[in-house]
Amino acid sequence: QVQLVESGGGSVQTGGSLRLSCAASGYPSERYYMAWFRQAPGKEREGVAAIWTAGGTPHYADSVKGRFTISQDNAKNTLYLQMNSLQPEDTALYSCALGGYGLARQSYNYWGQGTQVTVSS
Description:
Elements: E1 3-7, E2 10-13, E3 18-25, E4 33-39, E5 46-52, E6 59-60, E7 68-73, E8 78-83, E9 92-98, E10 110-111, E11 115-120
Parallel strand pairs: 2-11
Antiparallel strand pairs: 1-3, 3-8, 4-5, 4-9, 5-6, 7-8, 9-10, 9-11
């Protein structure tokens, strides 16, 4: 059974940094997209960053370009999101997803439960 488990969320001040992790298991394919999404209260879930596990150029939302970096450790089946220069508008529940395409949220089949990121001003 496919499982995705996020960790690394927390509370930071404006300008701080966090690194999120997503451990994946049980997926039958060797090559697929993994992505980070986020959802803040009163807002739609939005794509943050996505990466093709076999390599290639990552995709980023315009709002996080230059601040966030998506990466992976294939040996550990783990996805990361390094978040720098955090702003209050980054406050959201961050979830990882598997089995879709790019930043298209409706295309993803599997989701983790999420990890909360709170940025205070």
